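Q: Got a minute? One more chain.
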Amino acid sequence: MSIHFKLNRDATIVTISRHYYVDNQRRTTKLGTLDFTSDHINLSNTLTKDEQEKVIFWINKQKQLIEKAYTRYSRLGLVGGTPVVAESGKYNFQFKDLPGCNLESPTYSFLGCIKGARKLSLDINAPDTIEMEEIINNKELTTVAKSIIGAFCKKLISTPKLFAHKIYASDDIEQLIEANLLISKFITASKIKQARVRANGIEERVDQYFKKLMATDEGYLIGKRLKVSTLLKQKNNPQEQEPNSPKLIPVTQDERAELNSDTNFNRLYVEKPQLKHKITSDTSLRRMREKLDKIHGTNFG
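A: Always. Here it is, folded:
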């Protein structure tokens, strides 16, 4: 007595049967069918424990072979298609020129090749394409994005003598913007409803990540115009910053020259002018009265 498996031509259904002999005559009993595409294998109670183990092993093995074939085809720039299931020799022979075809495969098992796969005009032969697929499947794409940010931050903190905003080369900035644009265009073309997806807490997670990032030394450098060494010194020594102000003070002459060369730069990074005397509430009131006198020709003194 033995158990046998039969994969249908589209590789979607597995038929399980038991073969045995009665009076030297082979008999076959069908034990049921299983959805080959399902992640769960629901086995019949009519199977013995040993038979159940054989079913699970055979199905998992076939799925692994098919998955490896799709991966191999992807490396060749081929996508889609249907797994070919071995049948008769004549039937199998028509697929002999397809990548991976194994004419010695057992009948009703995977033949090793994919029929109907199409060649994409898009170049997907990059060496990391398959690895990126695995990253997406493992839900680690966000980790990749954080790694990219981390790499740019590392460049910031690794060059203390340079100005923070001048560390990135033009091609670094260009590829960062191009990568962002490519993904943004893809999201738009895919007609993904971003508002609905963001409602799942994505924005909160991003905000939380950046809140932690900006509290680090690397994050503190982002978007600022002083030298890295000056910024880190001021961050770690708050007394060297202006009291009750987030504005930063240039230390060296070249820092001052850099800031003064572009008056349109964000005022957050421009040195706050030092006042010659303290303006009291009385002084402010007197100046307001003087302005009103000039406008209305009156004297409220």
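A: Residues 2-119 form one domain.
Q: Perfect, thanks.
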